[in-house]
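FAQ

Q: What does a record look like?
A: Structure on top, sequence underneath. For example:
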C-alpha cells in the first residue's frame, strides 16, 4: 500500500455498489492507499443485496485471501456437511418418486461454501477504505467526455459530477455500457450491433425464487433431501435448485422454467414480480414428492425473467471500463456470476493501483484488464448456459427426457458431460491472482493504445 500523502494521482468513479463495485473499491484502497480517490455511486438509498444465496468457489476464495477477508467470510458461510460436498442431482419429473442420478463432488483445496448475499455485502461494507466517498440515490443516466480528458457524469436527479476514470459496475441494465456503445466509433463496432450490445437479452427462462426457514421444511418432512444437501432436481424444460444458507438455518430455492423458443424475444412486463405458492406448485406438479413438499414451504415467492448480456466485443474504451453484470451478466447455472464480478474487480483494482499506472496510461491498464478477463468470463457464461440446458434436458444432441429404450445410456452420456461442465474453474490459465500477474506483465511491457480495441479471443 502506498504511504504517499500527496494529491491523488487520479479519480475513479464506480457506478454501482453491488458486490463487484464494493470489491473494486476495497482492492484499490488496499493497494493504492490514498493515491487514488474513489467515488462510489449507488442508485438506491442504501447499499443492499438483490437475490439470495451465492457460492464461494475456490477462485473466489483466492481473491478473498488476497484481500484479507477470507476468515471473516468463512465464519458466516455455510460449510459443506462432509468432504464429499457437491450437488446431488436427481431425475425428478417422476410424480411417484424420482431417483438420484449422480452426485457431483467438488474437488478443490478450499471447500466450496454458500452464503447469503446480504452477509457478503455487510462484510464488504465494513471494509470500504477511507479513500472512498459513498454517494447514495445516484443513478447514472449517461456520461460525456470533456475536452481536457475528464468525464462528466449525469445523474437522473439532474446533478452532475466529474471523474478521470469511470467504472460501470451498474449491473445488467448498465447505463455505462449503454452510453459506451451508443457513443463508440463506427470503425470500432458495427453500428447495426449497438442495440445488441447495449440492451440485455431475455433467455426465455422464468425463475421462481424464495428463501425458506429450514425448520419449516423439517417439521413437514424431516427426511427431505433438501435439508442438508445442495440439490438439483431435473425435469424436462424445468429444474429446481436448492441449498442451505445462513449456516443451515435457511434454504435458498430457485425453480427454473425454460422455453428456448422465446430466447432473444422481448419480455413483456416487469422483470421481477410477485408470484404465488399456487403458481409455483402448478409449474412443478409432475415432480417427485420431495420437491412438492419443498415448494409447499415457499414464502412470498418472486418471479424473475432471466436476462443476460450478449457477448461484447470489448469491455473498455478510453478511460471507461465495465465489470461484473454490466459486462457479462450470465445465467446462474454454475453459480459463477458473483464470483466472476469479484475476479473482475480484483484484477482491475490491482491494475489501477499499480505504481506504473498513471492518468496518461490508464487506457493501457484497462486494456490489460480486458485482455485477461473478457475471454474467460465469456467462456464461463457460455458454459453456464449449456449446463442449464442439460439440467432441463434441452441440450441439443443429448438426452431430452424422452425414453426411446436407450434412456439409461443417454443419461450416462449426459451425466459425464455435466461433470465436465463443472470443471470450468480449472479450464482457464489460473485464477484471478494469476490473471492479475499476466495483466501486470502486459502493463509493464508498455502495451498502450489511447483508443478502443476489441478483446482477445
Amino acid at each position: 500500500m502506498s504511504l504517499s500523502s500527496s494529491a491523488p494521482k487520479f479519480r475513479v468513479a464506480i457506478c454501482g455498489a453491488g458486490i463487484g463495485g464494493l470489491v473494486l473499491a476495497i482492492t484499490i484502497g488496499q493497494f493504492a492507499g490514498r493515491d487514488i480517490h474513489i467515488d462510489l455511486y449507488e442508485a438506491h438509498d442504501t447499499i443492499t443485496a438483490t437475490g439470495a444465496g451465492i457460492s464461494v468457489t475456490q477462485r473466489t476464495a483466492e481473491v478473498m485471501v488476497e484481500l484479507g477477508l477470507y476468515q471473516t467470510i468463512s465464519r458466516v458461510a455455510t460449510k459443506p456437511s462432509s468432504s464429499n460436498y457437491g450437488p446431488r442431482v436427481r431425475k425428478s419429473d417422476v410424480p411417484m418418486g424420482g431417483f438420484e442420478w449422480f452426485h457431483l463432488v467438488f474437488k478443490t483445496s478450499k471447500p466450496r461454501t454458500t452464503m447469503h448475499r446480504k452477509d457478503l455485502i455487510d462484510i464488504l461494507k465494513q471494509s470500504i477504505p477511507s479513500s472512498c466517498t459513498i454517494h447514495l440515490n445516484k443513478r447514472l443516466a449517461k456520461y460525456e467526455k470533456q475536452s481536457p480528458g475528464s468525464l462528466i457524469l449525469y445523474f437522473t436527479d439532474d446533478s452532475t459530477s466529474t471523474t478521470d476514470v469511470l467504472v460501470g459496475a451498474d449491473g445488467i441494465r448498465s447505463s455505462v455500457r449503454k452510453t459506451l456503445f451508443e457513443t463508440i466509433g463506427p470503425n470500432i463496432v458495427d453500428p447495426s450491433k449497438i442495440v445488441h450490445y447495449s440492451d440485455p437479452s431475455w433467455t426465455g427462462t422464468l425463475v421462481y425464487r424464495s428463501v425458506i426457514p429450514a425448520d419449516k421444511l423439517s417439521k413437514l418432512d424431516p427426511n427431505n433431501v433438501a435439508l442438508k444437501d445442495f440439490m438439483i432436481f431435473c425435469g424436462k424444460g424445468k429444474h429446481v435448485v436448492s441449498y442451505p444458507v445462513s449456516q443451515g438455518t435457511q434454504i435458498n430455492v430457485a425453480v427454473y422454467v425454460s422455453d428456448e423458443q422465446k430466447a432473444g424475444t422481448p419480455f413483456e412486463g416487469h422483470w421481477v414480480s410477485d408470484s404465488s405458492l399456487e403458481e409455483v406448485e402448478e409449474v412443478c406438479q409432475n415432480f417427485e414428492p420431495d420437491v412438492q413438499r419443498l415448494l409447499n414451504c415457499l414464502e412470498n415467492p418472486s418471479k424473475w425473467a432471466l436476462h443476460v448480456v450478449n457477448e461484447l466485443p470489448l469491455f473498455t474504451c478510453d478511460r471507461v471500463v465495465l465489470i461484473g453484470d454490466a459486462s457479462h451478466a450470465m445465467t446462474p447455472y454454475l453459480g459463477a456470476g458473483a464470483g466472476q464480478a469479484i475476479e473482475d474487480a480484483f484484477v482491475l483494482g490491482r491494475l489501477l493501483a499499480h505504481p506504473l499506472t498513471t492518468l496518461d496510461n490508464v487506457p493501457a491498464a484497462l486494456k490489460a484488464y480486458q485482455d485477461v478477463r473478457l475471454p474467460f468470463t465469456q467462456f464461463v457464461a457460455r458454459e453456464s448456459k449449456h449446463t442449464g440446458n442439460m439440467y432441463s434436458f434441452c441440450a441439443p444432441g443429448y438426452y431430452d427426457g424422452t425414453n426411446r429404450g436407450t434412456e439409461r445410456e443417454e443419461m450416462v452420456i449426459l451425466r459425464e458431460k455435466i461433470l465436465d461442465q463443472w470443471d470450468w474453474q480449472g479450464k482457464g490459465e489460473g485464477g484471478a491472482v494469476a490473471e492479475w500477474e499476466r495483466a501486470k506483465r502486459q502493463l509493464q511491457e508498455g502495451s498502450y493504445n489511447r483508443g478502443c480495441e476489441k478483446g482477445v479471443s
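Q: Is there anything notable about this one?
A: Residues 1-5 have pLDDT under 50 and may be disordered.
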